[in-house]
């Protein structure tokens, strides 16, 4: 197992005591594509970030087990974590505008990521960077390598970001809403690209999103989170047969092109879901 | 109600809307879809008067609109923005935000109007003296809609009104917008990147690409796949592909 | 001497308050108008601001006081004249950032006049950073006031302004060092206090802390 999460709890200290944002999440991930879906505040991003120990200082993480490829993340030293972060597990964030360095060319950023983990000469890194940019299906990698982030479109920026994350040959890719800032046509391309890279390189993918149909389309399994818990875990193909009322609600309240409805179904949140 | 004829908008040397024409009848709803940079929001901002750098002709109820809009125009045309976190003044209470249009237009009976507006958008009374950061995203968007309705306009310009919201909240806001339209006979001009949202709320849909309105078709035609332009077909295919995975007869409850 | 020191505090701090009351609204008004109106107004107002910024503060104040007659009133006017440009700059920068936001667009769409938008919606948001800046600036206003006093251009002896007190005590600084030290210490402590106040206010008024 690449990732083992058992009974993960994340709490934040507030003036009125500890507020639990993740309340007992258990997940495992092999070399497959797992989607975590939930609305804002469901704790989906926190779950993924606690795996890399990338949480704000006022957070408290507890778990029966939280392991990345056998390494216990809770007790690992900062040095061990650095070996995981960026090297063995890459993190792709929502908006490439904020996660790329604005004063470095795309090529330099990818090259730096490559050199940081592989060493070698600047020239070799540069060659590797252009090669990586080609791998994320950038048509003119040499030109893009010389471009600054503001000269790139959102989709192009996200490809560069993915190329950076692929540089050290990670085993796991965590993508936190990687396409929410992108257009539908570009979104599909990026997800297909990630899907392809992940299966070709035999990596694990943790895709975090608010878009249940989209995740269902691209992942093998989907975990649906609500208020800090996983309420239902499904094989992607079985999305239509979801049983939990929350999952059903998420699907039913979407307006559909193929099935017009005068009024959209509104979700009635059952307090019992919190205890489920 | 809304007539736009040969509208061109430029930012500096860059023309972002290349002469588009559309018309929305009174009480009708027109949806503009397209990807970012297609110029759809720019059309809304030009019509609302937020962007004065345009050429062409725009009319409201037959009356020609000039570069500068007078107060009477803002009484009849209002806008709802995409981001409910950005469209409310961070240091003003809901009460203050809803009062603003009433003060500007010199409307009487402000207390009763605000109470009615809050109940119209299904917000509890106690949000009236809250600040925006104390409200959820859906509640903020309801406040923004209530503010737009304060001066009882005829036309509502909706700029991606639900794309910053969770899907369950989106459903509530879309239902609200539809109810309001029926109750008040509002005319909508909606902009969204989401084909299903546009088709849900609008009877006529315009597809934008790179500053051109490439196709105008009815929602029924779009649903049935009777499209002419390849860009429309592409957008439709992407939406339908995702819908098919979950296309099961919706279980009751 | 102790009572002179306390009484001098009244003059020095009174000058500081007078300067602030003159300067902050002026800077806020110039900055907000320039930032919101943009175009020719912005350029005009900012060039005027640049001209005032280009002069060293103490020199301009000296020249101004010298042209009038030395005294507390002209010292206050002189310092005010040189102290407002940074506030105008600050208010303009804030206004530029706010001008493009959706909530200001929403107010414009209400049909509100530009005057109302600046006064009721933009200026209140510029105020916190301006207040912080003012308290941090107070120490330098004290120093300028004391400097003018020391050079004989501010409050006139025998009225006990701190700077003037140091100037008069300068003659026997070697025999009785504590005489000029006491007002010097007072200046130092007052400046430090205002700086700490500014730091505190910055934390309290930080918009991220909520209302």
Structural features:
heterotrimer; A: 276 residues; alpha/beta; 6-stranded mixed beta sheet; 5-stranded antiparallel beta sheet; 11 strands; globular; C: 211 residues; mainly alpha; MetI-like fold; 82% helix
Walk me through what this model shows:
The complex is a heterotrimer of chains A (276), B (253) and C (211). With 276 residues, chain A is an alpha/beta fold. Helix content of chain A is 37%, strand content 25%. In chain A, α8 links the parallel β8 (172-176) and β9 (204-209). The mean pLDDT of chain A is 88. By secondary structure, chain B is of the alpha/beta class. In chain B, α3 (94-104) runs parallel beside α5 (137-149) and α5 (137-149) runs parallel beside α6 (167-184). In chain B, the strands form two sheets. A six-stranded mixed beta sheet of chain B has the order 6-7-8-3-9-10, with helices on both faces. In chain B, 38% of the residues lie in helices and 25% in strands. Helices cover 82% and strands 0% of the residues of chain C. Chain C has eight helices and no strands. Chain C has helices spanning 2-37, 39-54, 57-67, 72-99, 102-110, 114-150, 162-169, 178-205. In chain C, α1 (2-37) packs parallel to α4, α1 packs antiparallel against α6 and α7 packs antiparallel against α8. Chains in contact: A-B, B-C. The interface between A and B is large, with 41 and 39 residues.
